[in-house]
Design a protein that fits this description.
The chain is mainly alpha-helical. It has one domain. It contains three helices and no strands. The longest helix has about 35 residues, at about 25-60.
Length: about 80
Amino acid sequence: MIAQLSAKPVGLRCVQQKAVDTNTSIEWLILGILGAAAELETDLLRDRNCESIERAKAASVHMGCKRIIDAAEVRSLPD
């Protein structure tokens, strides 16, 4: 979204938070830093989730909802 805004002669002003206003270079810098911090947080969260899933799989922990039918019933279903 930032790239789209910077390609056009428009600005962004947040009504509820007066600190977000892209009419000056300093405010563009602050918005860029906030965006980078949000992206870093998202990447760290994704990495932690992947590590947790890998540990659970290594420990043979069943993930997801409880099984409603067992494997024998699945095999007996017609193709």
